[in-house]
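Deliverable D2.4 — example input (structure tokens):
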């Protein structure tokens, strides 16, 4: 059940009292309508909720903001880039919004190429390449979504299989 509370943020930290008898929320996002000029970092409990439910958020603007908040956690070294990438590659398979797909896949590419140390990148490479290939080769997805998958595939392709696949595709 979605509950929105209007809160004024006028300090570095704000405590929001819940009405009596209210169970603690499973998810909190402090800037749902994008009124604040603030860096909003979800807590670990909210990250877990997002990992299980981000695709169920019907409002595409809010969903885009939530993906952005998860990426901010990666940039702040509070969320493992491999965890972000795995979540993104799993959830984007059913994401209908081309702008969200393009933005999040751009971040996946950045996470793989720049944020993961080489030894961790090497161990994740085959899975990432496989899922990106699946996305750009899916004829049921719109062109814009497939193009975003291909762009990211080109950016992260490093294995001999991926490079051969690109060579054959772009020949």
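Example output (designed residues):
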């Amino acid at each position: 059940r979605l509950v929105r509370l209007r809160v004024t943020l006028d300090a570095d930290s704000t405590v929001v009292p819940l009405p009596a008898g209210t169970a603690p929320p499973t998810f909190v996002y402090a800037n749902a309508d994008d009124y604040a000029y603030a860096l909003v970092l979800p807590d670990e409990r909210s990250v877990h909720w997002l990992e299980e439910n981000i695709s169920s958020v019907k409002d595409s603007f809010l969903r885009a903001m939530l993906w952005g908040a998860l990426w901010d956690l990666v940039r702040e070294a509070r969320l493992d880039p491999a965890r972000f990438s795995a979540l993104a590659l799993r959830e984007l398979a059913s994401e209908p919004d081309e702008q969200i797909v393009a933005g999040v896949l751009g971040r996946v590419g950045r996470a793989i190429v720049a944020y993961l140390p080489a030894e961790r990148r090497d161990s994740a490479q085959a899975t990432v390449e496989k899922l990106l290939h699946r996305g750009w080769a899916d004829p049921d997805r719109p062109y814009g979504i497939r193009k975003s998958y291909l762009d990211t595939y080109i950016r992260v392709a490093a294995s001999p299989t991926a490079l051969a696949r690109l060579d054959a595709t772009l020949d």
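Helices lie at 44-53, 60-75, 81-91, 98-115, 118-136, 143-156, 160-170.
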